[in-house]
Predict the 3D structure of the following.
Amino acid sequence: MSGTLVQAQQTRRATAKSLPGKSRLERTEHAKHITRIDAAGFRKAVIARDGYVCRCCGCKVVATKAAIRQQLQVHHVHGRIGLLAFEDRAALVLCLWDHKRVTGAINDKLVIVPTVTFELLTPTLRGIALTDARFTVEFQKVA
């Protein structure tokens, strides 16, 4: 029986080195538990990271109640789903016009394509690749 155990361990080690992608330790270190902040703190964290610049078109945006093109909008990339509602890695700053394009409120639809993803250590979202908005994202027009 000990011979079988040794063979199994050797097989596991050999296949583990040949598998592509990140190791379990690397994925765990990259993943982070949900940060617990309120709506105002969440909005401030996203604006502090992105500044007052639209991540899509690069125009300067203004925090105002008036419905103007340069109105600052904080976009939840994955919606306000449960614990993701206040996760600053899954949000970015957009102007009003580009926010309408991303959400599909107008016909000129844009889709956010991530360059870096992350996953959360929650049972409901474990294993799902989420867009990490701290890094560059691309906007593609939908035909």
Remarks:
- The first strand starts at residue 72 and ends at 76.
- The chain has one domain: 21-141.
- Helices lie at 2-18, 24-30, 39-50, 96-103.
- Residues 61 and 70 are 5 Å apart (CA to CA).
